[in-house]
Amino acid sequence: MGFKKYEEGTKKEEEVLVEEETKKEEQKKEYINNLIEENTRISEEENKQEKTIDEEKVYKDVELARFNYNKILKKWKILGICSSCFGIALMVVAMVLFFAFKDNQAVTIVALVLCVLGIIAMGVVSVIKNKDLKKKALNYVNEYFVITNKFIYSDDKFSNVQYLADTQYSDEAFKNAHLYKGIHDTKSRNYVTLNYKDRPLVSCDISANVLVKGRTSPMFLGKLYCLERKHEETKEILEKKEGEQTEATDIKKDVIIFQLKGGDLSRPIDDVDGLEKIDETNTYVLYSNNKKCKKIFNAKVLSTCMAFRIDKTLIDVVISITNEYITIGIDYADDFISIPVESETNVQTLRRTKKDLELVTEIFDFVNENSK
To answer: Could you tell me the pTM of the whole model?
Structure first.
């Protein structure tokens, strides 16, 4: 065979391989999309269920807080309109006086004073309004989280539940879970510390961001749960204060990372340098450099992970197991973790959060049991 024919044959083989790989990816995508559609239909049916007594209570409490906050918003909207009208009226009067009596110095001075007073009035009201609304918005957010956390963590297996409004999850802690490369920073809220079966547990709503063309873009956005595996004082590692920068370590020691795959919005876990791909299917992938990986992440753990329902609300699930922590992230759609202001409180989001938390705690239990 001549070199040219060999080259042509090799090129055709490469094209066939690329075509086969593309076809496999399309089949995987189609499978996930069909799964999402089916799961979304099931979730929508479940959402039609009547509220329980506890759900009705949390709904009424949140709606009362939302109503009171909206009442303040409306009050300031009306006051803002009134102050603008008053200020504009003063300036109009000033302009009329100025042009009607432009040869009268005293009237001109009065006109200028009226104009300045109109501007000052609008400015003062705007400053007071913004300051008060910022304070009231923060109060509403805190009240919302206190009410909803009381509902979500109402089970007896949780204790010492504390919502820390001014605390955020540290960049270092998220990076050390070794889920995603190139994390630039994290932004979090609803930081809660509690005990789960006497082990320290932290939860929060978090956005873990990378830089894309100089702008931050979220790799992960959702609920994060981090359970301490060893009884050591590690609280300071998990927490950061506003504006604080923290550093991570690149050392991967006995790491297990898992992802329950999602659709187009799902970002594949990629901090896999030095890790072996233990298993992969259309629905999940598992990496590790821990020799006990299959013992720790056994069939029970996998089965529980598969019980999470990937749909249009739940985008994907990521799990990191190190010697120090079990970190579980549930990537939700933006509107799922938003705080209701104009729209009515959606109890289904709280119901879903609590249901998913049950699976989270089952994974904690299985991993800790398998690690003995």
So the answer is: 0.84
